[in-house]
Each structure stands twice: as C-alpha cells, then as structure tokens.
Design goal:
The chain is mainly alpha-helical and about 110 residues long. About 30% of the residues lie in helices and about 5% in strands. It has one domain.
C-alpha cells in the first residue's frame, strides 16, 4: 500500500480516498485482525456487546499514533482525505434494520 500511495502521488495532487473500510484501516495503519478498537473515527469498543445498540455516543479518536489503541503503523494518508464509503454504510444499516423487523408484519413480507 505504501508503494501504491507513493506511485499515485495522492499527497501531491490532494486526492481524496474512498474505499472499503478494511482498506481505509490499512491506509491509516490500524491493526487488521482481532481488534478491540476497529473504528478510525471513534473509540468504539467491539468487545462490549451489551452497549452496541444502547450507547449512542462514543468518544472520538484523538490521534493515530503507533502503539495507542490498535494503531500499528504510521498512517499513509491524512485522516482528512478519507471519504466514507456510503454504499457500504447504507447496506450495513439496512441489514441491521431488517434483522430487527417483526417477520410477521406486512412490511417484512414487502421486502
């Protein structure tokens, strides 16, 4: 990824980057597997199952320094140049919405 970012000169041309959440995590130097804090925007804790749908606000990530909260490497791009992948987010929200719907109602059969 470092070579790809260097070849495309994304810093020189001030390009925005949009990709899958795993690619974004890789570009920002986050740990790839078995992470406790896998979000690059906030400090969402993936291991506290009881708070996932009840807690609405999580503290924002303060920095992307290696060795702090699942950051392994120096970020290859600036956080301000990352665009969130809206299609992935919409599909994830719809998947969760359909999971909690009552399967006996007309709205579920319509979907």
């Amino acid at each position: 990824m470092k070579i790809l970012v260097k070849i495309t000169n994304s810093n020189k041309f001030k390009r925005q980057i949009c990709g899958d959440l795993k690619v974004i995590a890789l570009l920002l130097g986050l740990q790839q597997a078995f992470t406790k804090y896998c979000c690059f925007i906030c400090e969402w804790d993936s291991r506290i199952q009881s708070l996932h749908y009840s807690r609405k606000y999580w503290p924002a990530s303060k920095s992307l320094e290696p060795g702090i909260i699942n950051v392994e490497n120096q970020p290859l791009v600036e956080l301000s140049k990352i665009l969130l992948p809206s299609m992935h987010l919409n599909l994830g929200l719809m998947k969760n919405f359909v999971k909690v719907m009552n399967q006996g109602e007309a709205a579920f059969t319509y979907l």
